[in-house]
Design goal:
The complex is a heterodimer.
Chain A: H1 13-17, H2 21-43, H3 46-63, H4 73-92, H5 123-126, H6 129-141, H7 144-155, H8 160-167, H9 171-194
Helix pairs in contact in A: 2-3, 2-4, 3-4, 4-8, 6-9, 7-8, 7-9, 8-9
Chain B: H1 4-13, H2 15-19, H3 25-37, H4 39-59, H5 66-75
The chains are: A mainly alpha, B mainly alpha.
The structure holds zinc ion (ZN).
């Protein structure tokens, strides 16, 4: 075996099922950060993110014996976390229809409106506290259906297949949602940067 | 015959995969030909790339608070393994 940086999927399901605490600790160490971040970005509250984190691992622990390992451990954890997140969203916004977003998957991506090339702005204009705030607000504005795909794919770096499995949607839906999310963020940032152009 | 409108729409559909480098050589070449003659799409590609770049920089800033981590380890009965 060649020496490598720790691989994501090294956690042994067998050891987890046998109640190996060290292995559980390793799983928690590996996935608590990305799951916390996912909850934070999806729900916008540190308390909710903490609840999601705790619930995810508690539920994982309770259902580990039923998990057959057909998906990777990380996908399984993300699936549990996403269920928690959508439950919380429904509780918070019971009136909001279509958290799943299936209805819009067949739509063509919206044609870009802002055509300003702001790439050449100086570095300090491109990244500062104001830009960060604009970016967070833009991400918050995405619908849960788009936001979930965007975070899993672009922030937590899951593959298309892993994202599809974690969310229970098709790979095609992952691709269209990612594109629409990215285009929407580009649009919002372009509006912001257009005011900074000389 | 070229249909510039249709080309822009087509490019839009494969834009994500294009900037991720997930398209075949042939498709890339096709897109690049279109980009050479279409300023608008060029701007969209550039600013989309930069957008992705920027949020990947911001992303790394949300850290999991130590206290949250500790509570989790205690709740799971693995506090002996708390390393940070
Ligand atoms: Zn074009």
């Amino acid at each position: 075996m060649t020496e490598k940086a720790p691989v994501k999927n090294e956690v042994s399901l067998e050891a987890l099922k046998a109640g190996d605490k060290a292995e559980l600790a390793r799983m928690v160490e590996l996935y608590s950060e990305p799951i916390y971040r996912l909850g934070l970005k999806m729900l916008g509250s540190e308390q909710d993110a903490e609840d999601v984190l705790q619930e995810t691992f508690m539920k994982a622990l309770r259902s580990i014996q039923q998990f057959e390992g057909r998906s990777s451990i990380s996908t399984w954890l993300y699936r549990i976390a996403m269920n928690e997140i959508f439950l919380t969203l429904r509780k918070k916004k019971p009136m909001e229809e279509s958290l799943d977003g299936y209805d819009s998957d067949s739509e063509e991506p919206e044609k870009p409106k802002e055509i300003i090339d702001w790439c050449c702005l100086p570095e300090n204009e491109l990244m500062n506290a104001e830009v960060r705030k604009t970016m967070s607000q833009a991400i918050e504005k995405l619908s849960p259906a788009l936001r979930s795909v965007f975070i899993l794919r672009d922030m937590n770096h899951l593959s298309v297949k892993e994202t599809a499995d974690a969310l229970g949607i098709s790979e095609a839906a992952v691709k269209t949602r990612l594109l629409r999310a990215r285009l929407q963020l580009r649009e919002d940032l372009s509006v912001y940067f257009s005011h900074k152009m000389p | 015959m070229t249909h510039p409108q249709r080309n822009c729409q087509e490019l839009l559909a494969s834009l994500s995969e294009y900037v991720d480098g997930d398209l075949s050589k042939e498709l890339c070449a096709e897109i690049e030909r279109h980009l050479e003659e279409c300023h608008d799409c060029q701007v969209v590609v550039n600013t989309l790339r930069k957008t992705i770049d920027l949020y990947r920089q911001v992303e790394l800033e949300d850290e999991l608070p130590k206290s949250v981590m500790q509570k989790l380890y205690f709740r799971l009965n693995i506090e002996d393994y708390l390393s940070r």
